[in-house]
Amino acid sequence: MRIRSLISIASASFLLSACGPGRHPVTPDTHIPSDTPRTTIVSPSEPPPQPTRVNLPDLSAAFQYILQREAQQGHEIRAIGIGEVHKQISSTLVSTLQLIARNVLPDLADAGFQDLVWEHFPSGDLAAQEAESFYQSGHFGPFLSEFFRYYFDYCGIVEVLQQAHASGLEVHGCHASSVEEYRTNLMDLGYIVNERQLETSVPLLRQGRRIVIISGARHNDFQSSDNIDYIPFGITLHRWFREGFVSIDVLLPEAIETIPRPQDLGLGDWQALVPASGVEVIYREPGSYAVMLARSQEPVTETIPQAVPVCD
């Protein structure tokens, strides 16, 4: 049974800032008048031009629009790489992960996606075992409780995990497999997580499964960057699976403001892209999109991190 609104359950920030590599700034389509008449011959079979920006009511509508747009071009999507800016401050802000859990995962499961390859969740058997217990009890076991202790987006973790299970998505963790591994490799976590996402995704795709990958916004990129010391898994999946892989960044203005280099998102003046309402879908290049969310309608206040937060 799929659920869209999750009941409240009892809810460390580990390293991974989420930003994408530099891309060309996005601007709306413009028409430049000319004094010289022109005759344009368009083949009857040529599809009409697609807009580079469109405003839609919500995140669910944005993903439906992107999938329909790709389908109209004859692309069979096998993997969606969802990039997000991680919550960096303990606050009342509803996080990107929470919005993805509520508005995206159920629809993707209905569309035939089967697996969630997830940066935030630990890899290994112990995490998988405690996840199974969590599905029944709504509480983390000792390992996951320690792993997510004081994590700024604890409630986002809870919602994604529970919604994925309720929607029938099999969860595959890609983070450190223990607290010890996390602490020992703190400076290399970006590289480790990126490699594990790739190592987990490719076998699933070769089995013919359709997968969703949630990561920081830089991991799902098509292009590398001077500010990243590894090849993002998005580059490899795009090279191997071409139109079968789509990259979609989901961007929350309040989260962007907490990162040191918002220019790495490749959107130029990103604040000009924040919609007054709904969401702005931004086409970057074939197979690559950004979805800019409107600002929260509720006041956002900082909170004191708690070992077991209470999630609404």
Describe this structure in words.
- By secondary structure, this protein is α/β, with parallel strands linked by helices.
- The chain has a single domain, classed as Rossmann fold (3-Layer(aba) Sandwich), CATH 3.40.50.
- It contains ten helices and eight strands.
- The chain has helices spanning 59-72, 96-103, 105-110, 125-137, 142-147, 154-167, 179-184, 189-206, 233-241, 253-256; strands at 53-56, 79-84, 115-122, 170-175, 211-216, 245-251, 279-285, 288-293.
- It has an eight-stranded mixed sheet with strand order 1-7-8-6-2-5-3-4, with helices on both faces.
- A hairpin with a 2-residue loop joins strand 7 (279-285) and strand 8 (288-293).
- The relative contact order is 0.24.
- Mean pLDDT is 84; it is low at 1-44.
At the fold tier of CATH, the topology name is Rossmann fold
CATH architecture: 3-Layer(aba) Sandwich
Gyration radius (Cα, Å) is: 20 Å
Distance between the termini: 21 Å
Give the overall pLDDT as a whole number. Answer: 84
Order of helices and strands: EHEHHEHHHEHHEHEHEE
Main beta-sheet annotation: 8 strands, mixed
Q: Biggest sheet, strands in spatial order?
A: 1-7-8-6-2-5-3-4
Low-confidence stretches: 1-44
Output the CATH class name: Alpha Beta
The proportion of residues forming helix, as a percent range, comes to: 25-40%
Number of strands: 8
Shape: globular
Number of helices: 10
User: Number of folding domains?
Assistant: 1
Structural class: alpha/beta
